[in-house]
Specification:
23 strands; Aldehyde dehydrogenase family protein; ALDH7A1-like; oxidoreductase; NAD; binds 2-aminohexanedioic acid; five-stranded parallel β-sheet; seven-stranded mixed β-sheet; 509 residues
Length: 509
Amino acid sequence: MNIATKTVNVVHETAALLEKLGVAKELYTGGDMASFSPVTGEQIASLKTVSAAEAAAKIEKADAAFRAWRLVPAPKRGELIRLLGEELRAHKADLGRLVSIEAGKIPSEGLGEVQEMIDICDFAVGLSRQLYGLTIATERPGHRMMETWHPLGVIGVISAFNFPVAVWSWNAALALVCGNAVVWKPSEKTPLTALASQAIFERALARFGDAPEGLAQVLIGDRAIGEVLVDHPKVPLVSATGSTRMGRDVGPRLAKRFARAILELGGNNGGIVCPSADLDMALRAIAFGAMGTAGQRCTTLRRLFVHESVYDKLVPRLKKAYQSVSVGNPLESTALVGPLVDKPAFDNMQKALAEAKAHGGSVTGGDRVDLGHADSYYVKPALVEMPKQAGPVLEETFAPILYVMKYSDFDAAVAEHNAVAAGLSSSIFTLDLQEAERFLSPDGSDCGIANVNIGTSGAEIGGAFGGEKETGGGRESGSDSWKAYMRRATNTINYSKALPLAQGVSFDI
Ligand code: UN1
């Protein structure tokens, strides 16, 4: 491993960044919730949590803010998000660094996450002059039929540690231009980046001027606080990112009170490498997709099906890449792979590897890398050659494990690819047009994201993001995802002097 290093004091740097970003000190010192950096395992803050009653009061306040904000013209609401984008640009380096400290991302990925926030702001500003409804042909003379999109209310956002700020921004930027208020419950593993994002938002708010108070708020707390958000009658939509287990709890709770859900849950993303694939390109895409972010993206590549004719050309090269990839402290080095988030993540990885071996898997990598911190968990990414798709391959383990399997028949490979519970992202590597189009066709990949000759992870914000089956079915970010944050009214206007009834019904009194 040949990487440059320098020494960083994580505790001091966190405090300095929070101060620079304008987070009030009393929010993260002397509180009841400890927060840690996965980079060194050190405690970096103790945050004040909210009680259930305080959380409910914040939701009520957000509801009051919504009632005023919904009357502000959408392009003016867009101006707030334009200012948020400006503030994020100005604070990109500091917020990106804080993401690296709190989530353990390498610098380019920490900065990339903030760039994703900026991108969605730009998108939402454009959207604020659109939010189109249709005009629809009516069967009645002298009538006009149209649809109007209205703001919905307080939008709850529950986010995960691995994209601690971008996921909030996908939801918040759209929700706010759509005329809603936002209440955010961030992961307990990444509360500081949430406070920092909120401080940045408040700068934009101050420049904007007359926005109602309480328009966007953060709830620092544990699962019980998330439940307050999920169960509150004044929250008509909750957008929740996390495990399928979390979604199984949140989804029915929302359904019970007829609230909407955007669920962005687990992924067990697969790729197929076909005989004609550009193997150099595939190698790079697989390496980033499977090892990037230490395997902790919901879009991480976890299963790879390689055609038998190219298996011996590709897999030894992949193994070499796994053996030589740099694993290290993302703040002090140019390593490509940073830490796992915590000990449970490491334990789950080791458990999955043991199970894979029991199912006949042959493991390259997977060992802990000791950087001299007892409470940080760095690992060599693991490549596991499997005789077939079985055992842990069928489940998402949130760690850098790539299961590799050989295939001979294209249809069987697509069927295997789809034979898991999750349905987020997928890729095919081929130069054969028929294979590529088949993969994208109705009986091809069953995922919400299906790519050709690029990896499974690293989607742009312009497309709708989300997946099928146990991934939850929600869509966030680009395309027409905004519609989930609004309610549609169908309006029929009679400008005639008669009252013709539809379907030829007569009712003369
Ligand atoms: C996530 O892991 O929850 O496509 C989101 C990607 C990123 C978003 C990932 N743009 O990998």
